[in-house]
Design goal:
The protein has about 350 residues and is mainly α. The chain has a domain at about 220-350. Helix content is about 95%, strand content about 0%. The protein contains seven helices and no strands. It is elongated.
C-alpha cells in the first residue's frame, strides 16, 4: 500500500511536469522520456494491484486457517478436560486396586496357611494308603470268590431259562385246554336246555336221569372253576417270582456298576470316612430304596385286584368266557414282558 501511494505521488508529479512541459517548446525531447516513465509506472501499479489481490486472498486463507486452528484448540481443550476426568477416575481405580492388592495379599497368607495344613493331611493320607495296601490283597481274594459265584449264577440262569421255556409250553397247552373246556361248557348248556324242554314232557324217571346229568355237569363246572382258580394262582405266583428275580438281577447290576465306577481305593476311603468295613459299605449300597418298595406294593395290590376280578367273573352269570380269556391273556402278556426283561438283564450282567 505504501508503494502504491508513492507511485501515485510520482504520477501526479509527472502529470504536472508534463503539463508544464507542453507550454515550453524547448523541452520536447524530455517529454517523451516522461511518457515512457508514465507507462512504466502504470505497469508497476498493475503489478502492485495484482500483488495486493494475491495478498488479500492469502490473508483470507490465513484467517480461515486461524479459525480452524481456534476450533481445533477448543476441541483439544475439551479433550484435555476429558483426559483430566479420565486421569481422576484412573487415580481412584489405582487406589481401589491398591486396597484390593492388600486384601489379596492377606488372603494369600491365609491360603498359604491352609496349603500347609493340607500338605500335612496329604502326608497322613499317604501313610494311610500304605497301610491299606494290605487290605487290597484281601479284597483281591474276595474278587476271586465273587467270580466263582458269578459262574454259578450263570449256570442257574441257564437252568431258569430252560424251565421258563418249558413252562411257556405248558401255558400254551393250558390255554388250548381252556378254549376246549369253554366250547364244551357252551355245548353242555345248549344240550341241557334242549334236554330240559324234552324231558318236561316225559316221566319222572327221565327227570331223575336229567338230574343226574345236571349233577355231573355241575361237578364238571366246579372242576373247571377249581382249574381256573389254580391256573390264575399259578400265573400270579410265576409273575411274582419273575419280578423278584428281576429285582435281584437289577440289584446285582447296580452293585457291580457301583463297584466298577468306584475304585478300590475310593471304596476304602469311603469306608474309613464312615468308620465301617468294606463289606458293610457294600450292604449299605445294596439297600432297597423307598421307590422300589412302593412299586412292589403297587404290583401286589394289582395282582390282588386281578385275582378278585377273576373270582367275580367266575361267580357271575354266563356269558363270561371272553372276559375271563382277556384277563388271563393280559397276565400272560405281562409274564412274557417280564421274561424278556429278565433275559436282557441277565445278558447284560453276563
Amino acid at each position: 500500500q505504501q508503494e502504491k501511494e508513492d507511485l501515485q505521488g510520482k504520477l501526479k508529479l509527472r502529470e504536472h511536469l508534463s503539463q508544464t512541459a507542453g507550454k515550453s517548446e524547448a523541452t520536447l525531447a524530455p517529454s517523451k522520456n516522461v511518457d515512457l516513465e508514465m507507462k512504466q509506472l502504470q505497469c508497476k501499479l498493475k503489478n502492485s494491484n495484482n500483488e495486493i489481490t494475491k495478498q488479500l486472498t492469502t490473508i483470507k486463507s490465513l484467517k480461515n486457517e486461524v479459525q480452524e486452528k481456534e476450533e481445533r484448540i477448543r476441541e483439544l481443550q475439551a479433550k484435555i478436560s476429558q483426559l483430566e476426568r479420565d486421569l481422576n477416575m484412573k487415580r481412584h481405580l489405582i487406589e481401589d486396586l491398591r486396597s484390593r492388592l492388600k486384601a489379596n495379599q492377606e488372603n494369600e497368607k491365609t491360603s498359604n496357611e491352609t496349603l500347609e495344613s493340607l500338605e500335612r493331611k496329604v502326608k497322613a493320607l499317604a501313610e494311610d494308603c500304605s497301610n491299606k495296601k494290605t487290605s487290597i490283597d484281601s479284597l483281591k481274594q474276595r474278587l476271586n470268590v465273587a467270580t466263582k459265584e458269578k459262574s454259578q449264577y450263570e449256570q442257574m440262569y441257564h437252568k431258569a431259562k430252560d424251565e421258563l421255556e418249558k413252562k411257556d409250553l405248558k401255558l400254551t397247552n393250558l390255554e388250548s385246554k381252556m378254549i376246549e373246556t369253554e366250547c364244551a361248557m357252551t355245548e353242555l348248556e345248549t344240550t341241557a336246555s334242549q334236554q330240559l324242554h324234552d324231558l318236561a314232557k316225559q316221566s319222572g324217571q327221565a327227570l331223575e336221569t336229567i338230574q343226574k346229568k345236571l349233577l355231573l355237569t355241575n361237578d364238571k363246572v366246579e372242576e373247571f372253576m377249581t382249574f381256573v382258580k389254580a391256573l390264575t394262582r399259578e400265573l400270579q405266583h410265576r409273575v411274582q417270582e419273575l419280578r423278584t428275580k428281576i429285582k435281584q438281577a437289577k440289584k446285582m447290576g447296580e452293585v457291580r456298576a457301583c463297584k466298577k465306577g468306584l475304585s478300590q481305593e475310593s471304596v476304602q476311603l469311603a469306608a474309613s470316612i464312615l468308620n465301617v468295613s468294606t463289606t458293610d459299605l457294600e450292604e449299605i449300597l445294596e439297600v432297597e430304596d423307598d421307590e422300589e418298595t412302593t412299586k412292589t406294593k403297587m404290583e401286589f395290590e394289582k395282582d390282588k385286584e386281578w385275582l378278585q376280578y377273576i373270582q367275580k367273573l367266575l361267580e357271575a352269570q354266563s356269558p363270561f368266557a371272553s372276559y375271563l380269556m382277556d384277563a388271563i391273556l393280559e397276565k400272560l402278556n405281562e409274564k412274557k414282558k417280564l421274561v424278556e426283561e429278565y433275559s436282557s438283564l441277565m445278558k447284560h450282567t453276563v
